[in-house]
Design a protein that fits this description.
Length: 317
């Protein structure tokens, strides 16, 4: 009978980091070690396993077939180790929540949750959205992640619908639509809406692209993106019109008007993601709070992209 192999967790962690970063130098920076140390750890892991895990290309280190087979298990090992350490260090550490941007409605939702529980700390983090979710949740550097979910997610992650946020139109006070209490979507047909913050490949850029194609609206993503202050300033100057969520905390500008959209009302879908093996005690409380306050999609008066409708059609159970 072959003796069990004791894997070096540091080597496994180096393997996962190199898989995600692709370059030895970047993996070394992430782990706070030298590039040489990463190389040695990978070499030791390959020696222990008796398999080559990477091959080098101009674009960095790519996984071999053996490396791809090992990746899922390696991530699980690192994730479980991190969770075990966190659990023993302190069961009372702050719940780390990624909200994408602190101006979004998610922060209000977390504030409302915080008022319902006693002696709970929440640490707010920001990122570039869904593209960061799998890595940070698997590593345990984040406990919960709010974003729009699209595509097939790793089975290690669970997501539940959190809220649907009505989309509003932003215009200058001199705009012909500025005096209206609400605006029917058909009135925007043929318009160009400026959204410089729609990062290519992001889940929110995809949402607004689908919105634009459905209602014959051109989404202008030209930049540069100088931030929210610059955005509302250009809207107020009458240079553009824009979209923003109902709960978005935009910087105040005297010449910018925010108007609800109706018939149908476009709503942006936001979900809560977390790792199935994350047992932070506050995460369970947050999940129950989200589920109890969720309001399902109403197809009679709201609009969602087709891929989002099934998840938001009924309340989570």
């Amino acid at each position: 009978m072959q003796a069990p192999l004791d894997l070096d967790l540091g080597a496994v962690r180096a393997f996962v980091a190199l898989t995600e970063d692709r370059y030895f130098s970047e993996a070394a920076t992430r782990l706070g070690v030298s590039q040489q140390a990463i190389s040695k750890r990978i070499a030791k892991l390959e020696s222990d396993l008796g398999a080559r895990l990477f091959f080098r290309t101009r674009a960095g280190a790519d996984l071999t077939e053996e490396g791809r087979a090992f990746l899922h298990h390696a991530r699980s090992l690192v994730g479980l180790a991190d969770q075990a350490v966190d659990l023993l260090r302190s069961r009372r550490r702050a719940l780390r929540v990624d909200v994408l941007d602190t101006r979004l409605r998610t922060v209000d939702l977390l504030q409302a949750f915080h008022q319902t529980v006693e002696d709970v700390d929440i640490e707010i983090l920001t990122s570039n959205g869904l593209r960061s979710a799998h890595g940070t949740l698997t590593r345990g550097s984040v406990d919960a992640f709010f974003c729009r979910v699209r595509g097939t997610q790793n089975e290690e992650l669970r997501h539940i619908p959190a809220y649907l946020e009505p989309v509003h139109l932003l215009v200058s006070r001199d705009h012909p639509l500025a005096s209206r209490q609400h605006i029917e979507m058909e009135r925007l047909s043929g318009s160009t809406v400026w959204m410089p913050g729609n990062a290519p490949g992001s889940e929110w850029a995809d949402f607004y692209s689908l919105l634009g194609s459905t209602f014959d609206i051109r989404i202008d993503t030209s930049g540069p993106d100088f931030g929210w202050e610059h955005f509302v300033e250009r809207i107020g100057a009458g240079e553009h019109i824009g979209f923003g969520g109902e709960g978005l905390r935009l910087p105040w500008h005297p010449r910018t008007v925010q108007i609800p959209l109706v018939d149908p009302a476009p709503v942006y879908p936001c979900s809560l993601l977390h790792h199935r093996q994350n047992h932070h005690p506050v995460l369970a409380l947050l999940t129950r709070f989200i589920e109890s306050n969720f309001r399902p999609f109403d197809p009679a008066r709201q609009w969602l992209p087709a891929p989002d409708r099934a998840a938001f059609a009924v309340a989570p159970t």
